Amino acid sequence: MTVAQRTIKSLTRAVGLGVHGGQKVELTLRPAPPDTGVVFRRVDLPTPVEIKIDAFAVTDTRLATTVTPRNDPGGPAVKTVEHFLSACSGLGIDNLYVDITNEEMPILDGSAASFVFLLQSAGIELQKAPKRFLRIKKTVEIREGEGASLKWARLEPYEGYRLTFEIEFDHPAVNQTGQRVAFDMGSGQYKREIARARTFGFTKDVEMMRSRGLGLGGSYDNAIVVDDRRVLNDDGLRYDDEFVKHKILDAIGDMYVIGHPLIGAYTAYKSGHALNNKLVRAVLADTSAFDIVTFDDPSRAPPGLADLAPAW
Questions:
Q1: Helix, strand or coil for residue 207?
Q2: pTM of the model
Q3: Which residues are catalytic?
Q4: Are 128 and 35 in contact (CB under 8 A)?
């Protein structure tokens, strides 16, 4: 019984708004054959354009992760893909077509939970092809800045998939919460522990963003909003450490553009989409840093990685 690739069983749809453009967008998720990967299709264009997710399809990392066709960096884009890719990674989905009617993924509730629900409601199907893991064989690290502006991210060998993230915002509302989280994907707790963490924004940044035509779809329904002192949402936080858990949620999505589920440990300090993508590209650029592995016997796979979510 090989550890197998996964897709969804049936077609499923959702409608929402893009967080930055504020435009209505329809999403249709469809099963895809083995070794397809996650492929976005801009079906609103006169000729639909396919964008296969990979590290080199990421062409903009300001505020969110944007992808375009790998050979056409100025071509049609799909923006804000990281929450959706995080859900795919958390459920172990390898192959999927994502038909989209606008250039931005719907923000839904600002977390990955709605995408998890959508994927699980479609059902998860095992395919007749071995799941290919990318196993980290040696440590790769990217560092930027120094002193107070230092940030870094690294991937290193580990028998499983673990993520550790630390933030430092020097903000009273954030400082009262947990600033460091370690999460092991093999625990099977992605849906409960990570998926519900929402994106967050500061009121002081909102005016600036709106003046640049960004954040137009943002609201208390899809983001944690923080003023100079406190969280403004009536219902407060979903987790005591929701800020840093959202950074882990983002990182899971950003790592998934490597094209395979990971076997390794990700550790980061104040990282973001740009640094995460540089890290993934640095790993792929060094063929001695990784290998691609399959498991004919699930008991030989790292604990929990063979069954991230039940297939039914």
A1: helix
A2: 0.95
A3: 273
A4: no
Cα separation, 256 vs 280, in Å, equals 9
> Closest Cα to residue 151, out of 139, 143, 159?
143
What backbone phi and psi angles, to 5 degrees, belong to 149? -95, 5
- Dist CA 192 CA 254 (whole Å): 20
Q: pLDDT tens digits for 215-259?
A: 666 787 888 888 888 998 899 999 999 999 999 999 999 999 999
**Which letter does DSSP use for residue 303 in this model?**
T
pLDDT tens track for 41-91 = 999 999 999 999 999 999 999 889 999 998 888 899 999 999 999 999 999
Which amino acid is located at 287 in the chain?
T
Tokens of 40: 């976005």
Comparing CA positions, the residue from 254, 246, 289, 308 lying closest to residue 55 is 254
CA distances from 80 to 16, 77, 110, 251 (A): 13, 10, 11, 13
**What is the Cα gyration radius of the chain?**
19
Ranges of H-type helices in the chain: 82-91, 113-122, 172-175, 203-211, 242-256, 273-285
Could you give the dihedral angle defined by the CA atoms of residues 41, 44, 47 and 48, in that order, rounded to the nearest 10 degrees? 10
In angstroms, rounded to a whole number, what is the distance separating the alpha carbons of residues 105 and 111? 12
- How far, in Å, CA of 93 to CA of 308, rounded? 9
**Token representation of residue 261:** 């589920």
Encoded amino acid at 6, one letter: R
